[in-house]
Design goal:
With 168 residues, the chain is of the alpha+beta class. Helix content is 30%, strand content 39%.
Length: 168
């Protein structure tokens, strides 16, 4: 069973700065995790619906970076930067995400990949530096819906990849 959910639970000290989105993906954890580790996969599904990416550089290792442009469906380009802070295959990824490596508003996301029967429950917990930045991301950029769509794109990509693999 696949589905998305939004949660607002968090530790009291961070609850007003956090967004949590989760989804069950009908695929083994190792395959879901792999979708984050190889740019040939990641660039196929990253972002909300209608968005595409152009990768400038990608190095998946702790301290490595992914520099890319996120192209919006309205033609707007967004410079994006991610630093992989901690990687624990196939369970957890911690990353810092902003517009550039010196973005003072960069936020941290913790992605956890947990077995859920034959499927995988992925949780994306994003912590913003301030409540105001979290509220702006939610209200101006629709971050909750964008997160749900991003995990939906991941689920569709991974299950399609599995289907194609089974047909070979």
């Amino acid at each position: 069973m696949a589905g998305a959910s939004q949660e607002t639970r968090a530790e009291p000290a961070t609850a007003d700065r956090e967004i949590v989105v989760s989804r069950v993906v009908d695929a083994p954890r190792e395959l879901v995790f792999e979708a984050f580790t190889e740019v040939r996969h990641l660039s196929q599904w990253w972002g909300p619906q209608g968005f595409t990416t152009t990768t400038r550089s990608f190095e998946f290792r702790e301290g490595g970076e992914w520099v890319f442009v996120l192209h919006g469906p309205d033609g707007t380009d967004y410079s994006e930067w991610i630093r992989w802070q901690r990687i624990a295959p196939p369970e957890r990824i911690v990353l810092l995400h902003g517009e550039s490596c010196d973005d003072p508003n960069a936020f941290e996301s913790v992605l956890t990949f947990a077995p859920d029967g034959a499927a995988t429950r992925i949780e994306m917990r994003t912590l913003f530096p301030t409540k105001e930045l979290r509220d702006e991301a939610v209200e101006k950029y629709h971050a909750v819906e964008g997160g749900r769509q991003t995990l939906g794109n991941l689920a569709a990509y991974v299950t399609e990849t599995l289907r194609k693999g089974a047909e070979r």
